[in-house]
Amino acid sequence: MKKLLPVLVLILLCVQHLAAQQQPQFTHYSFNGMQLSPAYAGITNRPEIVSIYRYQWLGYDATFDDGGSPQTLLLTANTPVRLLHGGVGINLMRDKIANTTYTVAALSYSFHIPIREGKLGLGVQGNVNNIKKGSYRPNDDNDPSVPNNSSDTKYDLGAGIWYESSTFYAGGGVTNLLKSEYEFANQEDGIDDDKKGRLLSENHIYATAGYHLPVLSIFILTPMALIKHDTETFSFDAGAKITYDEKYWAGVNYRHKEAVGALIGLSLFTDNSLRVGYAFDLTIFNKVAKAPTSHEVMLSYRLPEPAVRFKPPMRTPRYNFTK
Predict the structure, then answer these.
(1) So which residues are the signal peptide here (predicted)?
(2) Are 30 and 222 in contact (CB under 8 A)?
(3) Angle, vertex CA 40, rays to CA 55 and CA 224, nearest 5
(4) Which of 168, 216, 281, 308 could form a disulfide with 294 if both were Cys (CB 3.0 to 4.6 A apart)?
């Protein structure tokens, strides 16, 4: 039991008090509008499916038996729907950190407003979140101080805004508007409610922007940035990527007080419908508490823009009457 004491202290500090559940971060944020804002749904006029797998701090050896490297799988899909004057989308995510697994399923709707050569989206989102605590192995059987395997599921809301044109995009969103509180009981029966472990979902605020700047005739330079705030911590990403012939891209990224990164990718098939990308992060801050590298793989498939099957009636007067 003495050997387990430091671990128990860490567990109790995390479980017995209110804490914020941080959401995962991605270096492919410029391809990941659905995770940043529900207003992105359908804004590009093309149905799209995006999948990103991130392995953060590869090989990190934490105190817990299962390790501490965050591993995240994200799947999003969105499509324009003319009858709804906007678009709809879904997000599915599984985020695992040590013995805790965070699972999200979200449904989004965006109302589109044409503005000049672009389009403005106003989005809302409803989601189901589940946080599951993993297993802990005490030295002494039936130790009441060690949390029991448990999970809790809550409903929550989000909202966002997004503007998209052929040369510029900007948008953002806020999550966890209801600030749901998750509870996890210890093994000891009859424990008081005020002694249960609680985990509070704080608001996460995102803001992002990018500008497509033509360079020569076949190169496009895109400066991009992302701001993140979870009511306790502030962070930002800033970078740029260059695209050649609308098929190949390479870029760099800087994450505030954490890492520098690089990303490469290419588009395949007709109309560049399939996009494949890879991102690499190198930790440059707090190296002792983290592993040196993080890795991401991105797959995206975009369908052609839906055709207009029913054209609106046009009134063309055949006769003119004058007095």
Answers:
(1) 1-19
(2) yes
(3) 60
(4) 281
Task: Please give the Cα distance from 41 to 89 (Å, whole number).
Answer: 5
Q: φ, ψ for residue 116 (rounded to 5)? A: 55, -125
pLDDT bin (cut points 50, 70, 90) of residue 144 is low
Pair 276, 265: CB distance under 8 Å: yes
Q: How many domains does the chain have?
A: 1
Domain that holds residue 218: 37-187+195-230
Domain for residue 170, yes or no? yes
Under a CB-based contact definition with an 8 Å cutoff, are residues 280 and 293 in contact?
yes
Torsional class of 263: left (φ above 0), alpha (ψ -120 to 50), beta (otherwise)? beta
Residue 320 in domain: no
Predicted confidence (pLDDT) per residue in 76-103, tens digit: 999 999 999 999 999 999 999 878 899 9
For the stretch 134-142, contacts whose Cβ atoms lie closer than 8 Å and that sit 24 or more positions apart, written own/partner, are 134/66, 134/98, 134/99, 134/100, 134/101, 135/99, 136/11, 136/99, 137/65, 138/1, 138/4, 139/1, 139/3, 139/4, 140/1, 142/187
Residue showing tokens 């605020």: 205
User: Is 15 within the bounds of a domain?
Assistant: no
Structure tokens that stand for 286 in this block: 């707090």
Question: What pTM did the predictor assign?
Answer: 0.83
Query: What is the per-residue pLDDT across 97-141, written as a single tens digit (0 to 9) for each?
Result: 878 899 999 999 999 999 989 999 999 999 999 998 776 666 666
Is 269 contained in some domain? Answer: no
